[in-house]
C-alpha cells in the first residue's frame, strides 16, 4: 500500500505553486541562447573574434561580449581577458604586416578599397601627438584600429611603445566593461530580457557611448 502511494506521488503533475518556469526555460532554449552560451564558454572563440575585430572586422567587439558578460557575469573577467589577448595578437600581426609588407601588400589594398586618405589622416595623428598617446586614444575610442596598427608598423615606430598603448587602452575597455557587467549583470538578468533584446540594447548603448566619446575628444 505504501509503495502504491509513493508511486502515485511521483506521477503528480506540478501545481501552480511548483517553482517550474516552463516558459522561461523554453525561451532560453533557442539557437541564439545556445550559441551565446557556447561562445561565453569558449575563450578561443572570443579571442578569435577579438583578433578579427582588431584586423579585418570594423565592428566594436563590445557589441558581442557585453551581452555575454551580462548573461554570465561570473565569466566576465575571463571573456575580457580572452578579448584582450586576441586584440594584442591581431594588432601585433598588423604592425608586422605594415612594417615588412607595406608596399607589396598593404598599399595596393588601401588603394583598392579607397582608404588611402583615411590612412594618411591616421599617420598625421601619429606624427603630430606623442606616439603612445596617439595610439592610446585611437585604440580607446571608436576610430578604426586597423589603420593605426598598419601606420605604426609602416612608420617604423617603436613596437614596445605601440604594444603598451594597445595593452593599456584595451584593458580599460574590456576589463572596465567586465567590472560593470559583473556588478550589474545579476540585477539585469532578473528582468529576464530575451537575448536578442540584450544584444540590441548593448549595440545601442555602445553607439551612444562612442558618439559622446567622439564629441568630447
From TrEMBL:
Regions crossing the membrane: 76-97, 162-184, 196-216
Name of a matching Pfam family: VTT_dom
InterPro entries associated with the record: DedA_domain (IPR051311), VTT_dom (IPR032816)
Keyword terms: Membrane, Transmembrane, Transmembrane helix
Domain VTT: start-end pairs: 60-180
Domain of life where this protein originates: Bacteria
Any one of the GO CC terms: plasma membrane
Annotated protein name in UniProt: VTT domain-containing protein
Native organism: Acuticoccus sediminis
Taxon lineage: Bacteria, Pseudomonadati, Pseudomonadota, Alphaproteobacteria, Hyphomicrobiales
Amino acid at each position: 500500500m505504501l509503495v502504491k502511494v509513493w508511486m502515485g506521488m511521483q506521477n503528480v503533475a506540478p501545481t501552480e505553486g511548483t517553482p517550474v518556469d516552463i516558459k522561461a526555460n523554453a525561451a532560453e532554449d533557442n539557437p541564439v541562447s545556445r550559441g551565446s552560451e557556447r561562445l561565453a564558454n569558449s575563450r578561443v572563440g572570443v579571442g578569435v573574434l577579438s583578433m578579427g575585430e582588431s584586423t579585418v572586422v570594423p565592428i566594436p567587439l563590445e557589441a558581442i561580449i557585453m551581452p555575454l558578460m551580462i548573461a554570465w557575469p561570473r565569466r566576465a573577467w575571463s571573456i575580457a581577458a580572452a578579448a584582450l589577448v586576441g586584440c594584442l595578437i591581431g594588432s601585433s600581426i598588423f604592425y608586422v604586416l605594415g612594417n615588412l609588407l607595406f608596399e607589396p601588400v598593404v598599399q595596393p589594398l588601401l588603394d583598392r578599397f579607397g582608404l588611402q586618405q583615411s590612412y594618411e589622416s591616421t599617420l598625421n595623428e601619429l606624427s603630430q601627438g606623442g606616439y603612445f598617446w596617439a595610439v592610446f586614444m585611437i585604440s580607446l575610442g571608436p576610430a578604426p584600429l586597423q589603420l593605426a596598427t598598419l601606420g605604426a608598423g609602416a612608420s617604423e615606430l617603436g613596437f614596445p611603445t605601440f604594444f603598451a598603448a594597445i595593452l593599456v587602452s584595451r584593458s580599460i575597455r574590456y576589463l572596465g566593461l567586465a567590472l560593470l557587467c559583473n556588478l550589474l549583470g545579476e540585477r539585469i538578468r532578473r528582468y529576464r530580457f530575451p537575448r536578442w533584446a540584450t544584444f540590441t540594447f548593448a549595440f545601442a548603448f555602445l553607439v551612444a557611448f562612442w558618439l559622446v566619446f567622439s564629441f568630447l575628444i
